[in-house]
């Protein structure tokens, strides 16, 4: 794969990750007090503030992800949020039986999303994102960097003997 195919795969991955995250963000944005109550039920300190921050991250983060804006910041912030929410809301180790298996699957899904987001943060959005458009790379392969130029050796200068020190009279 190369060039356009890589960019198409990166765009598809970005859109799939955004589609996995945006519905929960919109749901929390439509009912932030209900989300704050769910966080308070886990023992979270300052659940209203955490819920507000989470709504901002889960609403604007997937939009930035889909557009390819600030890939490192977006990817790492969404990955950290995904792991934190997985640890807070899907405590499978506290349950037994079928409930533990379901909570474990939900936690592992959150961890998998975090892994995909870290990969996005490291690879970037590709040419079919905001940065590619902004820098003028609309689907063209990225040119190879130019080889560094070698400097000619510096000319040797003759050593000048030091001046004698002045003696104050």
From TrEMBL:
Pfam families: DoxX. Residues 133-169 are annotated as: Disordered. Keywords: Cell membrane, Membrane, Transmembrane, Transmembrane helix. It comes from the Bacteria. InterPro entries: DoxX, DoxX-like_oxidoreductase. It is a multi-pass membrane protein. It is found in: Cell membrane. The chain crosses the membrane at residues 50-69, 76-95, 107-128. The keyword Calcium does not apply. PANTHER family: INNER MEMBRANE PROTEIN YPHA-RELATED, OXIDOREDUCTASE CATD-RELATED. Belongs to the DoxX family. This is DoxX family membrane protein.
């Amino acid at each position: 794969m190369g060039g356009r195919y890589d960019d198409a795969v990166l765009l598809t991955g970005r859109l799939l990750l955004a589609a996995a995250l945006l519905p929960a963000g919109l749901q929390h944005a439509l009912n932030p007090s209900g989300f704050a109550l769910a966080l308070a039920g886990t023992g979270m300190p300052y659940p209203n503030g955490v819920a507000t921050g989470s709504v901002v991250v889960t609403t604007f983060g997937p939009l930035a992800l889909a557009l390819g804006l600030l890939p490192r910041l977006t990817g790492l912030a969404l990955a950290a949020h995904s792991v934190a929410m997985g640890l807070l809301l899907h405590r499978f180790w506290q349950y037994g039986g079928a409930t533990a298996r379901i909570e474990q699957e939900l936690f592992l899904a959150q961890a998998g999303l975090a892994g995909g987001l870290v990969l996005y943060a490291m690879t970037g959005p590709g040419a079919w994102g905001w940065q590619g458009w902004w820098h003028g790379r609309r689907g063209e392969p990225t040119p190879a960097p130019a080889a560094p130029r070698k400097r000619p050796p510096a000319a040797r200068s003759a050593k000048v003997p030091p001046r004698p020190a002045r003696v104050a009279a």
